[in-house]
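Recall the central idea of this unit: under ordinary conditions, the amino acid sequence of a chain determines the structure it adopts. In this exercise we apply that idea directly, starting from the sequence alone.
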Amino acid sequence: MAEPLRILLVEDEALVAMLVEDALVAQGHVVTGIADTRADALALADVDRPDLALCDVRLAQGDCGRGVATTLAERGIPCLFLSGNCPDIADHPLILGCVAKPFQSASLARVIDAALARLRGETPERVPRELRFY
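Accordingly, the structure predicted from this sequence is:
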């Protein structure tokens, strides 16, 4: 891992959220919050600005994770989708890519490292097969 990040997790399935959180913390990252709706995600981002957001596409209460990711990106927060419904395109340049569910939580470290390299304008040394960049 290159550097620990402050990560907002936007996921409405509690078990998935717990597994991803555990994997991120084990890798040295700080999870700034877990949100299952648009309102919760934006409120958490306002209170404790994350370095990166990991967003599901389908959220609780019929909310759309694509809209959440776009709003966060407009606020300067890079996003990656973690979803069984990966969009074909990104709605903002800071929406970097998608990891299709199901995925191995152990691969998150490599995914985040590749995303960080892309953010720095570098070519990632290795792009995990689970990650599709936009």
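Residues 50 and 111 are 17 Å apart (CA to CA).
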